[in-house]
Amino acid sequence: MEWKNFDKLEAYRKLESLKNTVKLQEVMTGEKGADRVRAYQVPMAGGLTYSFAAKEVDDDIIATLQELADEAQLTEKYKALYSGEMINTGEKRLVLHQLTRGQLGDQVIADGVNKGEFYEAQQKKAAEFAIKVHSGQIVNEAGEAFTTAVQIGIGGSDLGPRALYLSLENWAKAQGALKMEAKFISNVDPDDASAVLSQIDVAHSIFVLVSKSGTTLETLTNEAFVKNALKEAGLDPSKHMVAVTSETSPLAGNPDYMEAFYMDDYIGGRYSSTSAVGGVLLSLAFGPEVFARINRGAAAEDALAKNPDVMKNPAMMDALIGVYERNFLGYGATAVLPYSQALSRFPAHLQQLDMESNGKRVNRFGEPVDYATGPIIFGEPGTNGQHSFYQLLHQGTDVVPLQFIGFRNNQMNNDVEIQGSTSQQKLNANVAAQIMAFACGKDDSDKNKEFRGGRPSSIIVGEQLTPEALGALLAHFENKVMFQGFVWNLNSFDQEGVQLGKVLAKKVLAKDTDGALDAYSRMLGIF
Amino acid sequence: MEWKNFDKLEAYRKLESLKNTVKLQEVMTGEKGADRVRAYQVPMAGGLTYSFAAKEVDDDIIATLQELADEAQLTEKYKALYSGEMINTGEKRLVLHQLTRGQLGDQVIADGVNKGEFYEAQQKKAAEFAIKVHSGQIVNEAGEAFTTAVQIGIGGSDLGPRALYLSLENWAKAQGALKMEAKFISNVDPDDASAVLSQIDVAHSIFVLVSKSGTTLETLTNEAFVKNALKEAGLDPSKHMVAVTSETSPLAGNPDYMEAFYMDDYIGGRYSSTSAVGGVLLSLAFGPEVFARINRGAAAEDALAKNPDVMKNPAMMDALIGVYERNFLGYGATAVLPYSQALSRFPAHLQQLDMESNGKRVNRFGEPVDYATGPIIFGEPGTNGQHSFYQLLHQGTDVVPLQFIGFRNNQMNNDVEIQGSTSQQKLNANVAAQIMAFACGKDDSDKNKEFRGGRPSSIIVGEQLTPEALGALLAHFENKVMFQGFVWNLNSFDQEGVQLGKVLAKKVLAKDTDGALDAYSRMLGIF
């Protein structure tokens, strides 16, 4: 296995020569456009399909992307990762998040532990705990049932679990399967914790404290905030809190918590939703079976990513097209546009996943690279975005590739027909219309009303946003980001870029400041 | 007054010759860095300050930006706008949103109406209505008080009012001044309306239907959704709904609504929060006096924007630096990073405001321009973002300018001291630390741990996020976007880029499809 910089590969030069050869305004028009839609799609797990007909690729480019995949040994590197090689070289760690949802290769033994069994045991422990809470075996001091679960965590301990919870909250309600309502406290802004505490009944709440190291400043601060509130309500915090942490952290085996669930250094925060980091909360909210269904969807998607054929590996296809757009077409951002209100915070999760993994300018050997790496990721649900920032996407001076997501059915089975169509039909008519408007544009003698087109998009389409579909969606993007990191020769699994700010913030709090840092600290009223 | 393309101005060539002359790593270090922080700030209204010390400018560049402001006649054009000239040339409309909060120049008479008086009358009507609801003069069919106000609107009828409501919800609660809880239905996704309806007690809810034209598909669909729910609950929809619309719309003077409040074509959706579009809901939620305080903050900020001196005009300074970054330093995006959980949706409002106003490639005469215009806007609150996408901002291959926002005090006056500092101190220590980390970076022999710095930011700092501060913040960005539109010679007040998608969506719903549009429609299960 070889780790080479992207611009040292044969395929790099070939792709360079192929750039700007596909005009969407031409290839997406007429019956050949329909043929493209039928041909340019890859099946995913969870009933999903990845459709890339409206991307600026053709058979030649796809063949060259396949050559790139082969030359960069993408599936071999994936195999090395899930087989337990030390892929996170900077931190000298394995990368095992896929193992939380399935066994893709040989068993991984590390530090004398069978890691698959370890993760499974923690999920089982979370499931048993949730069942005891739901059945009334675990109750509050007054012997009453817990009704609310509150996650206290930040970054990967917040965005992924929050996005997943919101994705299924209404689905679960519609099925009468919402076991407990979930809330989230993340920001060190004291107003965040205060606001959540004002919305809940602390006497009937379980707080899930999530910090791998057990030292995350925001999370420990918010824990203290919550403990104060519990004490003020005459309650014993240790009867209301559980911890999700590593076995070596100060939170492990600590009598301050009813229970502790473990993860380890081989699961990065932004990849941890399918571990106990998401599992405890989601099992409490929806029941362990729903959490298991999310993981089954993710496992099935992970299995597809093993296929070396790009036409059968949706994450790899998505990754390669993204690289082509970033490095040869020069696009600096990607907009994620789910036509599903349930996915309202999914773009924020992808923003962390992608930008924290591949927003790096040195390769895995610590050498600066000479090509662009991870793009900016942002997005909001459609149709809302259409009435907001789509103006720039259609008529702005820069091209922004688009990732649509849509479902044939809604989650709550409640709809109205107005002017001859349901809301669901209107929603999906809009996404179909947008793809075509972006791709083909429209001439107009009034240039203010002209749409130049040539604005590429892909869409992931599913039957319904179920737990399996959600798991597949989650894993798809994790694997996409991983493959792009392999192409760019990055270590996608560390995050050294977050360190300097932490160091300087500590200096401020220690009043060890001078120059501009001191001036800003005074401006902000810190001292 | 002359409307010239930006690249035809003298100042354009001068700025081109000055680019990349300021190295933040040098100018922000040591005591000269502290001097910069003290010198490079402009007072705003509402107790705010715009600080641009960590931007890549110096006295030479600022002097040239002043020349640009003069040459492009920015304050003259602003005066023309608020004096009632037809600035929105594409739609042949005046642009009068500033008039909803104050009289900046002469009275504006249009269509035989004194527009200032008209807007004021609508605000007064909203205030009287809200007071009657709060005092129990207006009640539901059972004679009971209304407790919840639900805005039904999309785009500008949603994002601005929602951002403002969330900005003050906890502030109001902490003061015992939250009169009614507010909710929002926007997306045509039926799950959005279903979810909100499942959270509220419709019998005690007032629905505020907001559509200027009275024909917005999403909004009318959601209205029907809500009417169904009211009827199913045995309630009379006309006793639960008010309309905010134009006087010529089908919603005006319609017995289906308890009351109608009017706006007109001279206030664009994304600029409408201080009109009845925001005013009815915010007056119901917080009382008319709080809404008036928001508008007073905005009016004071609008007045500052009249000053031709860039060192005394914060919106103009912000606009000019943004143009310099976009057109000469080549930065394609701006991240908005409020260190205040209350501003969690403020970046989404700014995303619409900026991207819909200036995401355009033709000038106000319909001629394509040869320079970059509006950037991508995205953002999330800090400290959350630090644990997410800041990795790319610090160490990615592209530079992204940053707009921080911070307050010396929190809103709820509830804090804890841990490890020698309060949460508020930790929050603000982080923003001070981040500004310096981005500007100056840090050398390291391990390039993976190196921060190159040179990443520019500005910060708006205030005492507390009060209604006045919020109004000033809102107006600041409206005026910034307006000034940038003047520099780029754009019409910032139309949005032709949203039309094509609407036309094609109608074709899909009429089953008038072929080619790829038909194939996508089938994939999405529309027919």
Describe this protein's structure.
Two copies of one chain form a homodimer. By secondary structure, chain A is an alpha/beta fold. In chain A, 43% of the residues lie in helices and 12% in strands. Chain A has helices at 10-18, 24-27, 30-39, 59-71, 74-82, 115-135, 159-174, 190-199, 217-232, 276-286, 288-304, 314-327, 346-358, 390-395, 423-440, 467-488, 499-509, 515-523, and strands spanning 41-43, 49-51, 109-110, 113-114, 148-152, 181-185, 205-210, 241-246, 259-263, 333-338, 376-378, 402-407, 417-418, 421-422, 457-462. A six-stranded mixed sheet of chain A has the order 1-2-15-12-10-11, sandwiched between helices. In chain A, strands 6-5-7-8-9 form a five-stranded parallel sheet, with helices on both faces. In chain A, strands 3-4 form a two-stranded antiparallel sheet. In chain A, β5 (148-152), α7 and β6 (181-185) form a beta-alpha-beta unit. In chain A, α12 (314-327) crosses α16. The radius of gyration of chain A is 24 Å and the shape is globular. The model of chain A has no long low-confidence stretch (mean pLDDT 97). At the A-B interface, α3, α7, α8, α9 and α13 of A face α3, α7, α8, α9 and α13 of B.
